[in-house]
Give the backbone structure.
Amino acid sequence: MREIVLLIISLTLINCSLGNRLEQQIAAHNMQKICIAERKYVNANNGKYGSISDLVSANLLSSEMTKKEIKGYRYELTITETGYVARAIPVNFGTDDSLAYHTFYVDEKNNYIFFRHLGYSSNGYAEKTMAGPNDSPYFGDDGKPLICEE
């Protein structure tokens, strides 16, 4: 009986881990889509970057991107005076439930999708800060960094 309970617990943990991994991959690829869409939009609009709604209206992004949540993530796109900053943030960011997730970041200056793992740091405290341009590039399943190209 004990072995059956341990097997169920193990399978549950594996399933949760695979689910988180899939959600992270979707978030990273959505960030790539935002980056590609922004590059196309700025070229077609005299150097002006667009909001998610602008990118959807220009048929550069799926209307799904306007949802408040997509597979456990929410997306923020901020237009600045000189560019944009996009982030993918777990919907449960700031809670212990988010520690198995990454946050993602991209802007107009970088060709990479950056990420930060929300996990415990070397001092034992949970890292709950968002990704930025000084974090590591996200690597896809092919072992290469995910970049802003189709």
